[in-house]
Amino acid sequence: MKLNQVKALVTGGVSGLGLAVTRHIIAHGGKAVMLDVNDEAGESAESTLGARYIRTDVTSESEVTASVEHAAKINGGLNVAMNCAGIIGAGRVLGREAPMPLSLFAATINVNLIGSFNVAKAAANLMQHEDPLEDGERGVIINTASVAAFEGQIGQAAYSASKGGLVGMTLPMARELARFGIRVMTIAPGIFWTPMVDGMPEHIQESLSASIPFPSRLGRAEEFAVLAANIIESPYLNGTTIRLDGAVRLAPK
Known about the structure:
alpha/beta; 9 helices
């Protein structure tokens, strides 16, 4: 699939990695609709990119179904679903005052894992009716995991579980949807430059950068977007997770 053929929806699409993917698709002639819950950033992205924003809680089945259908109407179809919506969900299992509230663990799983599945199934339901492209392809679903899925740090039990779930469902979902010509892939980014990192003291930023073998710097959102675009354009990429991490392996803490 060429980027100028893309009719995409991007969750978490108004900031960070999602915004970079939205921007990249539009810059290369494709169409993209942003699904998010940040109205202010959504309105700003709409005016800057000319892409539509739809307020959507990915944990709501009814909202997602309606938003995915709306996005398909705006774009004239749907052949790319990019899942970038997520939360950090940081916290120790045994905190200083009490064990982690179950609500924190459940909320992290609900947004990162269940939310991504919620979007994927709604998107696949529409993609199956798209006219096939080369190799019979009708669409691609790309999830965003994390290297924490493989070597989660102390305080990342909930986050790592949610991202590990995304890695685990990639292959079985790809196998099931293959008969419809729908691919499923996952990207596991390492330490990327985000607004949260931008607010950290300079010495912390330098320490994070030094932990990455090569290149010894934080990842850039544009690099994530380029990989997502490569996945979209490469029909033989299917059913696997790609690490994008500069060869970093997270330490216990």
